[in-house]
């Protein structure tokens, strides 16, 4: 059972957390291009993948329950949980709202014809900074899972 849960943990990590980290970077390109609809779609997708990333945690807890050499008291486990929670909060409360507001602003500019091509829209820096921080936090979680410090 541990093998199954560990496999599900890794597979969902790749196919759910990967897009959670990468989609905001695609949104920044769409923001620069002034594509309001694309930014809105990417914000919605990022939100869905971010919420689905809780499955990764669930499978990780399940796998941990079957392991004899690790527990919640292990440094790498609780630190991974804290870093993941921070990445989740940054994504849900900084990155996604910035993407949504940028899509709304781009839609308004498009409707009024005031958009200047190639200009960064409001929220671009928040998306860039927030997604970068969230990605670094997620990389730190992976590193902790590989090295498993006491």
TrEMBL record:
TM ranges: 6-25, 46-64, 76-96, 127-147
Record has Repeat as a keyword: no
Keywords linked to the UniProt accession: Membrane, Transmembrane, Transmembrane helix
Domain of life: Bacteria
Annotated Pfam families: DUF2269
Name listed for the protein in its UniProt record: DUF2269 family protein
Organism: Cryobacterium cryoconiti
